[in-house]
UniProtKB/TrEMBL annotation:
GO terms for molecular function: glutaminase activity; imidazoleglycerol-phosphate synthase activity; lyase activity. Belongs to the HisA/HisF family. Keywords: Amino-acid biosynthesis, Glutamine amidotransferase, Histidine biosynthesis, Hydrolase, Lyase. One of its GO terms (biological process) is L-histidine biosynthetic process. Residues 5-210 form the Glutamine amidotransferase domain. The keyword Amino-acid biosynthesis applies. InterPro entries: Aldolase_TIM (IPR013785), Class_I_gatase-like (IPR029062), GATASE (IPR017926), His_biosynth (IPR006062), HisF (IPR004651), IGPS_HisA/HisF (IPR050064), Imidazole-glycPsynth_HisH (IPR010139), RibuloseP-bd_barrel (IPR011060). Pathway: Amino-acid biosynthesis; L-histidine biosynthesis; L-histidine from 5-phospho-alpha-D-ribose 1-diphosphate: step 5/9. It holds the Pfam family GATase. It catalyses: 5-[(5-phospho-1-deoxy-D-ribulos-1-ylimino)methylamino]-1-(5-phospho-beta-D-ribosyl)imidazole-4-carboxamide + L-glutamine = D-erythro-1-(imidazol-4-yl)glycerol 3-phosphate + 5-amino-1-(5-phospho-beta-D-ribosyl)imidazole-4-carboxamide + L-glutamate + H(+); L-glutamine + H2O = L-glutamate + NH4(+). This is Glutamine amidotransferase domain-containing protein.
Length: 575
């Protein structure tokens, strides 16, 4: 069997290539234009099998298929009866149309329209790990390796609702519940199979699906005609398998020797401090390390370790990107490339996602910089300082984006699910009896049972840029609302006051931002114990929580956090 991957030009296809390499299928070829399709039979001495991976907007995918001359050859390929596996957008294009792009016609294989998730009672996009339950489990050769005891990684705002009264339900192979909505998580009929989730980002469970499909395609599938495949779909079981995500974050920068290391700050200060009470005039070792950048390990080795111990997602932040960071000189690109070859859960890369200029004077747009990270294997990019500047501009333009910000250009090209905004808020303490500033409605009052330095005080959350070095006249709430409007798909919510303190997440801040937006939020900064994860999930209903220091110093293991969450009744991802 010849294995082919369709690259329509606007998706992250590197992750799939890495997964296949990991599984030992290194002899795949890319299909990028009509000629590649025409050559398919000639260059393959055995029957072909085609995978179409991708993410992003429906109209972008269809437009790209047309623009590269791929639409008609793909239709003919599907007609030929040869095996096809569509992933995420590669599954959605099989449908007649999508509410995401009225007027754009899909491949029309599945006779219904893709709809949007309802965001009144849950965050949209549906981002994270969920279960998938096969409609018919009686014949193990038709499950394609999809197991109801596993979790798979989803990231999408539009879905094929599961409705047994319409003909499209014949295509349902497995269903998934998100909130109160049930949708088709996999479709299958004759030679065509598709997953709404990303098997290439779903750890071992996802790799198993890819392997099962390739092996079945290789040994020759027998495809029953549609009529005999049709079984009356039974009503889906109301199982909400959606899990809370645990994210391990690595702040990366060059140390004083020029080596790229994972560091970790206290309230964003990443340099070792000398404890004067321990210093003597002869204590040269302590004097030497004082002021040095803290070194907690190598980025790829740590990423590998966290993947193996069950992290649901990993985040790599280049924390010195506020300096000039030309695309040609981004050491993080190499880190991402190597990490993505070993890690099969989502990878977010942040720092320096902005318009930049190479040393030779070549201008690089933020979308080009992001594209370089996606091609290296990143799944999402995280934008910090530029997001603040974009919302300031949005405010001065009376709330309308002009389409030029990094958030807008990247989400248009790669989909909003690929754009995370990292917020670095810092508390501004005020006297509530005299405060007359614009953020009166956003004041928070310290609890009597909270940390000592907060009791009896009031504050609002001000946004910063350049890693907390500069305060900007924007509140965290204003920023969150603004970036959602501009097209961000997720918020990574840090807290400079809590970072590295181990006091627990800032629940007031998390609740405030959760209420302000309908996109998923990641609670970050301050985790000091496994109980802190349980309490932030219980008290704020946030979708995911991130920690750095306690994982790097091995004070708490990811496995321990997940056990505590299960004991508290939360769904967690099965490895
Ligand atoms: O502004 O788009 O170039 O992005 C820069 C990125 O680098 C931003 O995401 C910003 O948050 C991050 N950053 C910049 N300086 C620092 C610093 O620490 N000096 N790190 C920094 C932000 C915060 C979290 C940390 C959590 C959890 N780090 O990443 O991992 O607070 O820590 P904890 O569990 O140990 O408390 P741009």
């Amino acid at each position: 069997m010849g294995l082919f991957l369709l690259d329509h030009g606007a998706g992250n296809v590197q992750s799939l290539a890495n997964s296949l390499t990991k599984l030992g299928y290194t002899d795949f070829r890319w299909i990028r234009d009509a000629q590649d399709f025409a050559d398919m039979n000639a260059i393959s001495d055995t029957p072909p099998a085609l995978i179409f991976p991708g993410q992003g907007a429906f109209h972008t995918a269809i437009q790209c298929l047309h623009a590269h001359g791929l639409f008609e050859p793909l239709q003919r390929y599907l007609d030929s009866g040869k095996p096809y596996f569509g992933i995420c957008i590669g599954m959605q294009v099989l449908f007649a149309s999508s509410a995401e792009s009225p007027g754009t016609r899909g491949l029309g294989r599945i006779p219904c329209q893709i709809g949007r998730f309802d965001d009144t009672e849950k965050a949209v996009p549906h981002m994270g790990w969920n279960s998938a339950e096969c409609i018919d489990t009686s014949d193990p050769t038709t499950t394609e390796g999809v197991s109801s005891t596993s979790h798979y990684y989803f990231v999408h705002s539009y879905c094929a609702k599961y409705d047994t009264s319409v003909a499209a339900a014949e295509w349902a192979h497995s269903t998934t519940q998100y909130g109160q909505e049930v949708f088709m998580s996999t479709v299958r009929q004759r030679n065509i199979f598709g997953t709404q989730f990303h098997p290439e980002k779903s750890g071992t469970a996802g790799l198993n699906i890819l392997k099962t499909w390739i092996e079945q395609s290789r040994t020759g599938r027998t495809f029953a005609p549609p009529s005999s495949l049709f079984r009356l779909p039974r009503p889906p079981k109301p199982i909400d398998g959606f899990t809370k995500r645990i994210i391990a974050c690595m702040d990366v920068r060059a140390n004083d020797e020029g080596d790229l290391v994972v560091t970790k700050g206290d309230q964003y200060d990443v340099r070792e401090k000398a404890d004067p009470s321990n210093l003597t005039s002869t204590d040269t070792a302590t004097l030497k390390t004082a002021g040095a950048v803290r070194n907690l390990g190598k980025p790829v080795a740590l990423a590998d370790k966290y993947y193996a111990s069950g992290a649901d997602e990993l985040c790599l932040l280049n924390i010195t990107s506020f300096r000039n960071s030309p695309l040609l000189d981004q050491p993080m690109l190499a880190v991402v490339r190597v990490a993505a070859e070993k890690i099969f859960v989502p990878l977010t890369i942040g720092g320096g996602i902005k318009d930049t200029v190479d040393p030779d004077g070549t201008r690089r747009s933020a979308v080009e910089v992001a594209g370089a990270y996606f091609r290296a294997g990143a799944d999402k990019v995280s934008i910090g300082s530029e997001a603040v500047h974009a919302v300031e501009k949005l405010r001065s333009a009376n709330g309308s984006g002009d389409g030029t910000s990094a958030i807008e250009t990247i989400s248009k090209m790669y989909g909003s699910q690929a754009v995370v905004v990292s917020i670095d808020p810092k508390r501004v303490y005020v006297d509530p009896t005299t405060y007359d500033g614009p953020y009166k409605d956003e004041l928070v009052y310290g609890n009597d049972d909270g940390p000592e330095n907060e009791r009896g005080r009031a504050w609002w959350y001000q946004c910063t840029v350049s890693g907390g070095r500069e305060m900007r006249p924007v509140s965290a709430v204003e920023l969150a609302k603004g970036v959602q409007k501009l097209g961000a798909g997720e918020i990574l919510l840090n807290s400079i006051d809590r970072d590295g303190t181990g006091l627990g997440f800032d629940h007031d801040l998390v609740l405030m931002i959760k209420r302000a937006v309908s996109i998923p939020v990641v609670a970050s900064s301050g985790a000091g114990a496994k109980e802190h994860f349980v309490s932030v999930f219980k008290e704020t209903n946030v979708e995911s929580a991130l920690a750095a220091g306690i994982f790097h110093r091995e004070e708490v293991k990811i496995e321990d956090v997940k056990t505590a969450m299960q004991e508290a009744g939360f769904n967690t991802r099965a490895m």
